[in-house]
């Protein structure tokens, strides 16, 4: 192999080639820079012959310089022959050659190996909101905005790894290797119009400080153009959807399609931003009454939460100590929003997924002032999620009929759920609960107290109050349905159990309806004059689809299915006419909201119940009329794509979303609820009637 030698010089070969100052360390044979880089054994300072470096070129100088594929021919490479510069083609030797870097006029096209000797551990949390991070070798992250004490982790870098980083930073940009020269898709690039759309949505057209319940709205706007494409586009989809402007359906579907494209092209590395995007996609599907479409995205979000350990409070995670209180609160809200949707899925979905996640390790969301309020209040989020979790457990318990009636009446069957409900009830702060004396109505004297509670907390209290009554109803309704069987069939102790459970179930239905009437009175009735414009949203009765269904089932069953002996003992002279009037108001509100998707079977079912209840009140049984032939009508849900204009009549019908179905009963003896275990429940009642 040929060698190239040079006279002795003051700088070592490495410092000479890279034009760096070279200072010899006293009483050693290496310079201070090589010592810093951990390559002191390769330093040749003061030697007359530099240390040779073995290289093996694989391309001619022109192709290497221009980074083109080089295929060698007999005289020159094919590219040089094609360009007519065969004489300028400098061919590499077939064998290894020793090249003195000080004499090379061609810079290295590929910097020294950038692959560390040992793999760098993955970060527990990556790509946090608006954080520029330094990746340490021990897997921690350090913000550039942190105090200087946070930079001590750099000293833990191994010399070899530090050498790779130093060489990479000192190499010219033109020498860096970048194999991806593809152009960015125009659909995924951020634009000022997109930012303005999100800005107007978060600030109410520039009239308010930007706030959000899900994320730090102010910092998101500041760093909008650095966010991942899927998060930016689903934010635009939200902004268009809730603007309620003409053409929002088309524009919303367009942004949703672009967000889906961005998701398909994303690297899907776990990050808090991607969790936000997944939860917002699910929320949008929920708003369009198509929760089945959003379920896979919610599952991905929950799996990422477990991977990033967001199910633990940020204050307890040492690798998040560098975050500010504001950033920790945002992570806390990222978890609770997803956990809320997860519990909603557990309580309503017939195909709910189950993951080992709970909210016991994460503190309740709080408000942060910097100096303005940063987030929307979520005072009740923790308890609402836990109530939905209890409903989900009850839904799973009663998905199949019990082995026998004594098993259903056994206190141990639901005791663990009753204890969980009592624990949640005792932990809810008293100011979150609307207390009223009569289960049938909220009096005018009690209304100012309830308004004051909302005005003080500036939060939505309707959900926690209505959901509490629905939880009681779900836990006791299977026992209420036993009242179709005459009392003599039960022992005295069983009759006592049935009476107590049925009374609680019926009272919870009336209390829910009383809250509904109160919300209607405050939002669109005379009570709206007692509120300022910013407070009316707290009293709206939207988002109560599934509690409405649970309440109407109880009213319908008591009026049409309960045995007369049980009715006289439990219900007495109950006002079925008032129940019908309230049910008509509820279903009318659902229809005014253009309910679709998951709401369609519930609306149809309530209308059938009202028809049958009016027959019972009038004493004239005409039978519910359906256009389904001799087999009757089965209430189910059709799934359509988001942005679609209609539902294909030939599309399959899936099991509807609800807390609990009809448990084998039929509306008007002709309308059934579609469910996997509805037929099993029908057989259960037939065998025990």
TrEMBL record:
The keyword S-adenosyl-L-methionine does not apply. One of its GO terms (cellular component) is nucleus. It comes from the Eukaryota. InterPro entries: TF_fung (IPR050815), Zn2-C6_fun-type_DNA-bd_sf (IPR036864), Zn2Cys6_DnaBD (IPR001138). One of its GO terms (molecular function) is DNA-binding transcription factor activity, RNA polymerase II-specific. Residues 59-91 form the Zn(2)-C6 fungal-type domain. Keywords: Metal-binding, Nucleus, Transcription, Transcription regulation. It is found in: Nucleus. PANTHER family: ZN(II)2CYS6 TRANSCRIPTION FACTOR (EUROFUNG), ZN(II)2CYS6 TRANSCRIPTION FACTOR (EUROFUNG)-RELATED. This is Zn(2)-C6 fungal-type domain-containing protein. It comes from Rhizoclosmatium globosum.
């Amino acid at each position: 192999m040929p060698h190239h030698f040079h006279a002795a010089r003051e700088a070592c070969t490495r410092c000479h080639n890279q034009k760096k100052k070279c200072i010899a360390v006293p009483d050693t044979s290496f310079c201070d820079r090589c010592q810093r880089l951990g390559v002191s054994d390769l330093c040749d300072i003061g030697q007359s012959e530099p240390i040779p470096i073995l290289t093996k070129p694989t391309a001619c100088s022109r192709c290497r310089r221009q980074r083109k594929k080089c295929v060698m021919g007999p005289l020159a490479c094919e590219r040089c022959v094609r360009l007519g510069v065969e004489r300028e083609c400098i061919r590499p030797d077939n064998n290894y050659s020793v090249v003195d870097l000080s004499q090379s006029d061609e810079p290295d096209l590929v910097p020294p190996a950038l692959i560390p000797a040992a793999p760098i551990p993955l970060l527990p949390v990556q790509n946090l909101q608006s954080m520029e991070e330094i990746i340490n070798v021990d897997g921690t992250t350090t913000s550039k905005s942190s105090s200087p004490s946070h930079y001590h982790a750099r000293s833990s870098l191994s010399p070899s790894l530090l050498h790779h980083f130093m060489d990479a930073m000192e190499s010219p940009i033109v020498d860096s290797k970048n194999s991806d020269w593809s152009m960015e898709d125009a659909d995924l690039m951020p634009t000022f119009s997109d930012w303005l759309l999100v800005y107007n949505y978060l600030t109410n057209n520039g009239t308010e400080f930007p706030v959000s319940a899900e994320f730090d709205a102010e910092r998101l706007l500041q760093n909008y153009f650095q966010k991942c494409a899927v998060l930016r586009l689903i934010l635009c989809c939200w902004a268009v959807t809730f603007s309620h402007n003409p053409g929002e359906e088309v524009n919303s579907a367009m942004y949703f399609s672009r967000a889906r494209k961005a998701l398909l092209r994303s690297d899907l590395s776990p990050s808090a931003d991607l969790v936000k995007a997944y939860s917002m996609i699910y929320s949008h599907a929920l708003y369009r009454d198509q929760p089945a479409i959003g379920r896979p995205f919610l599952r991905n979000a929950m799996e990422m939460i477990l991977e990033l350990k967001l199910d633990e409070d940020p204050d307890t995670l040492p690798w998040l100590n560098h975050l500010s209180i504001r950033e920790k609160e945002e992570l806390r809200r990222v978890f609770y929003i997803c956990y809320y949707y997860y519990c909603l899925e557990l309580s309503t979905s017939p195909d709910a997924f189950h993951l080992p996640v709970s909210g016991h390790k994460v503190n309740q969301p709080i408000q942060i002032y910097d100096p303005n309020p940063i987030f929307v209040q979520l005072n009740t989020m923790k308890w609402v999620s836990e109530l939905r979790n209890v409903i989900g457990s009850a839904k799973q318990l009663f998905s199949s009929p019990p082995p026998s009636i004594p098993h259903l009446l056994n206190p141990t069957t639901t005791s663990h759920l009753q204890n969980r409900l009592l624990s949640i009830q005792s932990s809810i702060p008293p100011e979150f609960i609307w207390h009223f004396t009569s289960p049938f109505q909220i009096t005018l004297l009690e209304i100012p107290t309830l308004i004051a509670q909302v005005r003080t907390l500036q939060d939505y209290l309707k959900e926690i109050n209505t959901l509490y009554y629905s939880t009681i109803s779900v836990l006791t309704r299977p026992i209420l349905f036993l009242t179709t069987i005459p009392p003599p069939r039960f022992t005295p102790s069983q009759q006592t159990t049935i009476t107590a459970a049925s009374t609680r179930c019926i009272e919870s239905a009336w209390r829910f309806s009383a809250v509904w009437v109160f919300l209607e009175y405050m939002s669109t009735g005379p009570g709206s004059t007692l509120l300022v414009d910013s407070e009316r949203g707290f009293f709206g009765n939207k988002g109560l689809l599934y509690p409405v269904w649970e309440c109407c089932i109880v009213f319908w069953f008591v009026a049409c299915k309960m045995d007369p002996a049980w009715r006289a003992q439990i219900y007495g002279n109950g006002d079925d006419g008032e129940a019908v009037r309230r049910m008509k108001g509820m279903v009318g509100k659902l229809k005014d909201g253009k309910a679709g998707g998951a709401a369609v079977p519930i609306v149809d079912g309530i209308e059938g119940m009202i028809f049958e209840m009016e027959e019972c009140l009038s004493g004239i049984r005409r039978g519910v009329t359906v256009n389904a032939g001799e087999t009757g009508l089965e209430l189910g849900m059709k799934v359509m794509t988001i942005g679609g204009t209609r539902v294909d009549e030939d599309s399959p019908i899936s099991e509807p979303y609800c807390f609990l179905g009809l448990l084998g009963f039929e509306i008007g003896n002709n309308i059934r609820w579609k469910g996997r275990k509805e037929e099993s429940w029908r057989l259960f009642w037939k065998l025990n009637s």
